[in-house]
Every structure is written in C-alpha cells, then in structure tokens.
Amino acid sequence: MAGRSRIRGRYNSSEVYAITHGFRSGKLTPEEWMNAPEKTTKELLTMWNGTGIHNQIQGLLGGRDYKEEKVEFVYKDIIVVAKADFMPPNLPDEVWELKSSEKLMTKAKPWALHQVKMYTTMFKKKRGTIYQPVQDDDGIYLKYLGSVERDDEWYEKELQMLYQFHLKVEDLWKKQ
Asked: Is residue 19 within 8 Å of residue 165, measured between CB atoms?
C-alpha cells in the first residue's frame, strides 16, 4: 500500500484532477507532486480496506476476466496511466469505477467524475459510471453515484493543462 515514487513524465489519471483543477486544499504543485508525502497509517488502512472490497466485488462480477484493466496513453513526451476497475462484458460501451468509503455517498465527487471521464477516452468507451460497493443486512450491492459521457475534446484540453504542469516539473528536475 505504500506510495510509489514518481517517475518523470508518467502521470496517473487519478491525480490529474488535483493537478488541473485542485483537490481539497487547492491545486497540486509541481513541488508537491515531486515530493509526495508518506501515507499515514489511516490512509494506508483505508486503501487496504478498499482493495479488499474491490477484489470481492470484482470476483462477484466475473472474476479475473473483467477486473482492473490498465492502459497507457502517450501524449507528446508524457504517459498518462489509467487502471479501470471493471469493464462490464454485457455493457461493452461502459467503463466502471468503484469508489469505496466507510460513509454512504449520495453522489460521485467531482474528482471521481473527472477520473472516469478520462477513462472513457482512454479505454474508448461511450460512458463511464461510478458505483459505491455497499454492504448492509440484505447483502452487497453497487450504489449508483453518477455517470459521464465521453468527450475527446475535453480530454485533449485536460492533457494540455497536464502538459503545462509537466513542463514545470521538468524545470524543477533540471534545477536539482
């Protein structure tokens, strides 16, 4: 569960929203991206619990055949990496993202919608849908949190903003 060290020119789709639009305390700076803080024990446990829930749900949805597909998208001299949680075989135009939380969510967070919208272009799907795995007295179900439609022009603009961030990261690396 420990964080991975950053690789020059390689960005995770899950962090692009924080880079291009901000997240909680504002936009992620190139300095913060390069020097990511260590995860706290609470953050690591949350990630571990989420991985367990994802694995259980993916097993119920079709096992290894349809879980966590990874794609790398090259833009200029950077790579954007995406790892979709589920590609439903009966809905070939969709990609799904599972967002686990101890709290019952009412709708998808903006950063989650952003992430799954990136997936639609990266995985060549028409729609991205976000679900929350929920367990209650009646069993386990997926709670619908939101959907987005593919928009390749929007995706191109996001990559342009990410690339401007990348140029700043490169400048910092040269100064080290």
From this structure: yes
